[in-house]
Amino acid sequence: MKPGFYPALGTPLDEMGNLVAASLARHVEDQIQGGASGLLVMGSMGIQAQVKNSEYVKTARVAVEAANGACPVMVGVMDNAVARVLDRIDSLRGLDISGVVATTPYYFAMSQAEVIRFFERVADASPFPVYMYDLPSVTQTKIAADTCLRLMAHPNIAGIKTGNLETARRIERAKHAVDPDFVVLFSGLDVFDAAYGYGLTRQLDGMFACTTPINARLYDSLAAGDRRAASEALDRILLLRDTFMRVGVFAGFSYAMNALGFPGNFAPDYTPPLSAEQQDEVRQCLKQLKLI
Predict the structure, then answer these.
(1) Alpha helices in 225-289 (DSSP H)
(2) What is the value of pTM for the model shown?
(3) Contact at 8 Å (CB) between 89 and 53?
(4) Could you give the strand order of the β-sheet that contains 183-186, starting from the edge strand earlier in sequence?
(5) pLDDT at 1 over 90
(6) Between 278 and which of 123, 135, 231, 247 could a Cys-Cys bridge form, CB atoms 3.0 to 4.6 Å apart?
């Protein structure tokens, strides 16, 4: 899990909710050619919770085969009970994946004691390394730093994805005394350039999925210590992110991916399409950023 950017891939589906396999394979190849350090398949941007059960393993398999060992591939296994998460994990057996990524269950809020029990039971049974995904805006439950430090000692819990800078910095500082190989995947997009200076050099976000050439400029600049160039590159990614937020994140992302040459619907199936004016706003932003 080397330093760099880790795109959370989109999942292209047809009108019946079936995977558009060629589009996903090309999506994977595009990110690898663009210098991605690793990939997350079916995370939150990859609408794992909306992917049909019949398409779940197929989606993971297509991504793994397209990556062909070029970089680590992680797969989302989010669900609302240990047993359901383990069902997902069991379905992935035999695939060459580097780990599975799980949020806390997202139907009920949980105590930190329940968070610990949940991840310990998942990690005890998983044949793959487990990465925790701290996403309290969706799940109602934060993975507290103290909780993470305790779970870090589990031999099959390999890392955490979090957008909380305070949590990420604390874990990054403390991990050397518990597990130096523990991976912090930071997902606070607005402060990626600043976070890099704190040693948070592995960063994961769904925006990377549609800003491939800008990603490389951002991380080449960070590695070279050119903070000004890095900040300018990050501002370009944020410009597109803010455009998506104005028109609707998933609808905007889906339209952008189509404009970039990746067919399929990348949004939940209940998401209305963009209006002509909104489409034009996204397209003009892509042109401004020289992505199309």
Answers:
(1) 227-247, 249-259, 276-288
(2) 0.94
(3) no
(4) 4-7, 202-205, 183-186, 157-162, 130-134, 99-103, 73-76, 39-41
(5) no
(6) 247
